[in-house]
Amino acid sequence: MNPEEAGARIVFALDVASEGEARRWVEELSGCVGVFKVGLELFIRCGPAIVAWIRERRPEGVFLDLKLHDIPQTVGRAMEAIAATGARWTTVHGGENPTMLKTAVEAAAGRVGVLAVTLLTSVGREHLRAAGYRSLWAEHPEDLVVERALRARDAGCAGVVCSGREAARVRRAIPRPFLIVTPGIRAAGRALSSEDQVRVMTAAEAIAAGADYLVIGRPIREAPDPRQAARRLAREIAAVGDDLPSPHQS
Ligand code: C5P
């Protein structure tokens, strides 16, 4: 895989507060990363206009990461509105009620890919224990992630969001084209000043474990030279990603 194809595997998290800032990042990083991800903060501030603006400029489409979690009917109605924005992917929490995921997929009707969030990468064993999860899952979060990934597949989701630490288990359980999108990517040995992620991995490790796309925000945004940081990450991915299908097939 050449570094350009590898760069297409990077989903840049536009975790910024204004349309102007978002536009500057899209312009700066175009050609170095693949998909741009609009999250809650930016969407609450700018709404569908920012999705439309990026779509006009980037053929790879937009990942509208709203992490829906509500009663099935509300999620279904929200999904209709998301599909109307023309986003390529969106997210729904793959929590307790599989009906919520199924309703989301039905409402999406193939217009937008639904990715199930298995377990946030900011959640660790101690959080699961404190939340009362049975000890099997608190000690082995990867089992909980695989369980939720299987349910997401059964509900018709396009894929899951999970940490690199669980990607290999999920990939063994569910082959491609089911997508694995992995946040919590960190450069080896480089801690961030604003760290809140717990289950982290390097880009090379996550791709080698079976991830198709990597969500990366701060390691690029906070780098002294963001384009160079994105290119370095793409080279890391290229070094391990030879047997990946082309990003345009997934
Ligand atoms: O690389 P960085 O930690 O800055 O990336 C943070 C981004 O990853 C945020 O946009 C966050 O919403 C997203 N994310 C995450 N954990 C998940 C799903 C998405 O951190 N399970």
SSE layout:
Elements: H1 3-7, E1 10-14, H2 19-29, E2 35-38, H3 40-46, H4 48-57, E3 62-68, H5 72-85, E4 89-93, H6 98-108, E5 113-117, H7 125-130, H8 135-139, H9 141-155, E6 159-161, H10 164-173, E7 179-182, H11 203-209, E8 213-216, H12 218-221, H13 226-240
Parallel strand pairs: 1-2, 1-8, 2-3, 3-4, 4-5, 5-6, 6-7, 7-8
Helix pairs in contact: 5-6, 6-9, 9-10, 10-11, 11-13
The protein binds cytidine-5'-monophosphate.
The site of cytidine-5'-monophosphate has 17 residues, from strand 8 and helix 12.
Quick summary of this structure?
With 250 residues, the chain is an alpha/beta fold. The chain has helices spanning 3-7, 19-29, 40-46, 48-57, 72-85, 98-108, 125-130, 135-139, 141-155, 164-173, 203-209, 218-221, 226-240; strands at residues 10-14, 35-38, 62-68, 89-93, 113-117, 159-161, 179-182, 213-216. The protein has one domain (3-243): Aldolase class I (TIM Barrel, Alpha-Beta Barrel), CATH 3.20.20.
Model description:
With 250 residues, the protein is α/β, with parallel strands linked by helices. The protein has a single domain, classed as Alpha-Beta Barrel (TIM Barrel). The chain is built from 13 helices and 8 strands. Strands 1-2-3-4-5-6-7-8 form an 8-stranded parallel barrel, surrounded by 9 helices. α9 crosses α10 and α10 (164-173) runs parallel beside α11. It is globular. The site of cytidine-5'-monophosphate has 17 residues, from β8 and α12. Residues 13, 15, 39, 65, 117, 120-121, 161, 183-185, 197, 215-219 line the site of cytidine-5'-monophosphate (C5P).
